[in-house]
Amino acid sequence: GATYAFEDRVIDGQRVRCVLLDSVQSQANRLELALLEGHRARKLRFPLVQIDFGSVPEEEVRAVGVVTALELPHRLADAHFGASEVDEKGKRVPFRHRDPKKASALGRRFDQGSIANATPIFELCPTALIYGMWDSHGPRGGLGERFQRTVVSEIVGIDAEAGRRPASRIDPIIRTTKDIPVERSPEGWKVVEKGKAKLSEVGLGNVTPSLKDEKGREHHGGVTIRSARQVWHLSLPALRRLRFPLEGRPTDPAVDVAARVTLAALALTAQAWQWRSGFDLRSRCLLVPQHELRVELLSIGSTSTFSLPAEEVAELLKEASRAAVAAGLRWNEEPVTLFPGKELVKAVQRSRQLAAAAPE
After folding, report:
1. pTM of the prediction?
2. Residue 360 has pLDDT above 60, yes or no
3. Residue of 12, 10, 117, 135 lying closest to 69 (CA atoms)
4. Residue range 196-210, pLDDT digits in tens
């Protein structure tokens, strides 16, 4: 029942039929994965928190491996982190806890994060200040701190037309076009004289070519577009709302500026690294840029354009982070590793067992 997101947009003064190819949420995930790729290649260094599932004895859970805040949907505020533990003085303690006395030092510091005190988030998970975060799974629940996105990006198809696609399948072994009844069970399936399921439901037999499904809805046939456009914004006013006080010191505007410049450099780096990685959004949706990445700086009454080569912007991030450290902020280049708590291990193990036992 899914539908394409068509809408009219004004481009160069003209109303043009467009279709959404990659949403704001999807683009945020792709930008984070571009940063993760650079981090794993050790070409980009920035604070990162991760959970290591590979250290547990349960085989199904070990297969998860290492999962980072760049991959989980709620970033550092994700419930997976809340159900994990940290090594402190040779003992594992909960990363976060409703009773602050039982939480780790890192978790307590994270709980102090706010718009007026974004320092803990900057030092633990700066990408959360770029792509947004709502701490709805923390000790305060729905009253947890919200951090606005400072980067908004989406990709749209220009001058779009919907296509039509026939669905069909030719089975070289089972040649009949009539569907054979089968009976399904947890152990598999078997052919019967009368059954609620059909052979086609287990992936066998022919499927007659058709433009519509069983409910009369047309099969999605993709879209044809004249071109695609990425609309990417980094809001400097949103960055200016963030404050970065240092512990035991009065607010220093120079520290605020150093932190904001570093966040801006990280956001630009993610965008440059995404262009470097390429745009293979899904099957038959491979987009190739027509030129190098260019960014416009929009000021009151003026606009300036500059290019963003990936390697140069990575150096810019290094310079900005060094300046932030010189101003008194922390910028850990090695990941902080957490470990799944007992209940999280049980939940992952149980979910995988149920998924393996469930019929397709």
Report:
1. 0.86
2. no
3. 135
4. 788 877 777 776 677
